[in-house]
Protein 1
Amino acid sequence: MTLWRSPAKEALWRDEFSVLAADERYVSRRQFAKFLTLASLGMFAGNLWILLKARFRTAPVFAPATVARLGEIPVGEVKLFAYPAPQDRCILIRTAENDYAAYSQKCTHLSCAVYYEKETGRLACPCHNGFFSVKDGSVLQGPPPRPLPRILLEERGQELIATGVEGR
Ligand code: FES
C-alpha cells in the first residue's frame, strides 16, 4: 500500500482525514456571537453575585477575648497575641502608664510581621522599610497602602479585653 500518490497530487492521508486545517481556524459569525453572549452572561452573573454579596453582608461579630492583665507588661514593652482567630497575629503595646494600643501584626503591604521600635515609638515592617504610627496605625513611611487594622480594647476589671477589629 502506498501512502503517496504522484507528486502532483495530494498525499493520500489528506483525502482520508476530513478536517481541513484552514477550516479548523475558521470561526463563524454565529459561533462568535454565541461566545460573546455566553461571556457577557458570565460577567453579568459574576457582577450580580458581587453586588448581592456586598448588599447583604453583615458586620462581622467578634467574640471578646482577654489579651492581658493590666500592668502585665512594662511601659514601652509589647505582648503578642492572636485575635480574632488563632492565625491572626496581633501586637499589644503599652504606650504609657495607663495607655495601651493593639494592632494586627500583618503589614498591609505584603503581610510581613511588624514589630515595635521602642527607640522611635513606631511600628516597623522590616521587609520594605514600612513604618506605622503607634497612635492610630496610620502609615508614616514606605509602601504600605493602608493603616494597620486596629484591635479595639476595653478594660474590664483588671483585664484588657479585645472586642473587635477596626479597618480590617
Ligand atoms: S511588607 Fe511591609 S512594607 Fe512591604
Protein 2
Amino acid sequence: MSPRLVRLTFGGPDLESLTVEHPAASVRLLLPYPGTQELIVPSWNGNEFLLPDGRRPTIRTFTPRRVNPETFELELDIVIHGGGVASEWAQTAEPGDPAAISGPGRGYAIDRDAPAFFLGGDETAIPAISQILKALSADRPVQVHIEVAHPDARIALPDHPRLTAEWYDLPPHASSGDTLFAAVRAADLEPGVRVWVAGEAAAVQRIRRHLFEDRGLPRSRASVRGYWKHGRRGNGDDA
Ligand SMILES: Cc1cc2nc3c(=O)[nH]c(=O)nc-3n(C[C@H](O)[C@H](O)[C@H](O)COP(=O)(O)OP(=O)(O)OC[C@H]3O[C@@H](n4cnc5c(N)ncnc54)[C@H](O)[C@@H]3O)c2cc1C
C-alpha cells in the first residue's frame, strides 16, 4: 500500500448485514470527537446528526473497498492529506480503536450495453475506480485517468485486458483537479462512452460543464461527483 493511502480493516458482528451491491458505493465513518477516545453515537434531530452536547459528530464518507461478510470485516482506503480529522485518525489508528460504520450508500450501476468507459478521479477516487475496473466486462475498452497530489499515492490497479491508464502528478501550486480537467478535455471519447469521475468539488464542476456543455454528452451517460471540497470539512456534494 502507498503511504498516502492507508488501508484500514474494520470489524464487528453488525457488519454481517452490510451488503454492497454495486462498485463505488459509500459508507459513513463515525469517529470519536477530535481529542477524545470515546465513540458517542449521535442522534438525528430531523435535520442533522448531533452529539448530546450539541456538537457536530465527526462523520466522513468513504468507499467500502472490500466487505467480507464471513469475517465481518470491511476495508477502507483513506487518503492521507494535510489536516483532516479522518486522515489524521487513519495515520495513528491502532487495533481496537473504536469507530462506527453506517450504510451503504448507492453505488455505480454499470451499463452492460455501453461500448466503452472513461474513469477519472483523484486519490480519493482510487478505491472506487479499482472496484469499477474489476466489475467491467473484459471486452470493453476502458480509459483511466488519475491525478495524484503526491507521486507515492499511486497504487497498482486491477488488471483489465483493454485498460489504458494514465497518472498525472499535480504540480505543487496547481489547484486540485487541474490535471484531471486537462485530461478530460484532451480525451478522445468514443460515441456512447460512459463517464465516471470523482474528485474535488470545484474541479468536477468544471468537468461536468465541459462534458455536458462543450461536448454535449448526455447527462444519463455520466456520473460526476464531488468527493471533497477545498477548504471545507466533509465531502464535496454534502451528500
Ligand atoms: C461517495 C464518496 C466516497 C469517498 N471515498 C473515499 C475513499 O475511499 N477514500 C478517501 O480517502 N476519501 C474518500 N472520499 C472523500 C472523503 O470523504 C473526504 O476527503 C473527506 O473530507 C476526508 O475527511 P477528513 O476528515 O480527512 O478531512 P476533512 O476534515 O473533511 O477536511 C479538512 C480539510 O482537508 C481538505 N481535504 C479533504 N479531503 C482532502 C483530500 N483528499 N485531499 C486534500 N485535501 C482534502 C478539506 O478541503 C478541508 O480543508 C469519498 C467521498 C465520497 C462522497
Protein 3
Amino acid sequence: MKCDELCTVASATAIGGGYSMLLLDAPAISKEVAPGQFVHVRVPALAESDLRRPFSVFDARGGRIEILFKSVGRGSELLAKVRPGDRMRVAGPLGRGFPDPAPGADALLVAGGYGVAPLHFLSARLKEKGFAGRIVLFAGGRTAADLLQLDRFAALGVECRTATDDGSAGAKGLVTVPLDAALEECRRSGRPFELFACGPGGMLKAVADRAMALGAPGWISMDRHMACGVGACFACTVKTRDPKGGVANARCCVNGPVFKAAELVWD
Ligand SMILES: Cc1cc2nc3c(=O)[nH]c(=O)nc-3n(C[C@H](O)[C@H](O)[C@H](O)COP(=O)(O)OP(=O)(O)OC[C@H]3O[C@@H](n4cnc5c(N)ncnc54)[C@H](O)[C@@H]3O)c2cc1C
Ligand code: FES
C-alpha cells in the first residue's frame, strides 16, 4: 500500500565521491517496501511546486529506510544538506521491484555506481528469508570511489567482484569483465542463475543481452526521469514488447522500474 509519509531524518552522512547515505524514520514505508521499489522524495529546501525526486531503497528495517544517493543536480545537492531532525514528505513504496530468484538458482547482481542500492536491499531480504543459493555482486564504476558500500554486502555474506574504468580497484574495464568470467563458470558447471541489474543504460543493455543470449532470467531496473511517479503523466516511458509482437510504451514508475530482460526493447 502506497502512502505519503512525513519522515524525520535520523542521520545524513557524506561518504565521499559525491555520495551520501540518508537514514529516515519512515515506519509505514519501511513495513511495506520490497527490494527494487522506490520512494519519491520532496526535497525540503525545494519549492512545493518542484517535482519530487525518485530514489531506490538501500535497506529497510526497524521502522527506518536508508537511501544511498549521488549529488548530480539541484535536488540531490540540497538533499545532501539535510540534517538529523529535518523532516520531509516521502511517497512510497512505488513501482514493481525484483522477484526472488528461483530455488536452486544463484543470484548474480550487477551494479554501476549507486545502482548497488536496490541490490543491497535484495541481498538483505534474500538472506533474511534463508535463500540457499549463492549471491554474487558485480560492482563497476569509473574509479574506486564509485564502488559503494561493499562492506555492507560482505557483512551479508555476499561475494563481491569489482571493476573500474581506471583500474584503481578490481579488474580494469567494464563490470562485464568479471561478469563474463562468472557466466563462463556457470556455463561450465551448469549451475542455474538469474541476473539482477541496476545502473547506467549501457550496462543494463549489456546485462539484458547476456540474459537473453544465455536463456537465463534477467531482471533489469530501468532509470528514467520521473514527474508524477504514479503513472499519470507518461514522462517515464520505457519501450517494451507487447504480446502481439509490436512495441508498447510502459511507464517505468508503475510497470517498473524492474522489467524482465525479455520484455525490453532497446533504442
Ligand atoms: C526508480 C529510480 C531509482 C533511483 N534511485 C536512485 C538512487 O538510489 N540513488 C541515486 O543517487 N539516484 C537514484 N535515481 C536517480 C535520481 O532520481 C536522480 O539522480 C535525481 O532525481 C536527480 O535530481 P537532481 O535535482 O539532483 O538533478 P537534476 O537537476 O534534475 O538533473 C541533474 C542531472 O542528473 C540527470 N538526471 C536527472 N534525473 C535522472 C535520473 N532519473 N537518472 C539519471 N540521471 C538523471 C539530469 O539529466 C542532469 O544531467 C533513481 C531514479 C529512478 C527513476
Ligand atoms: S512519472 Fe508520471 S507516469 Fe511515470
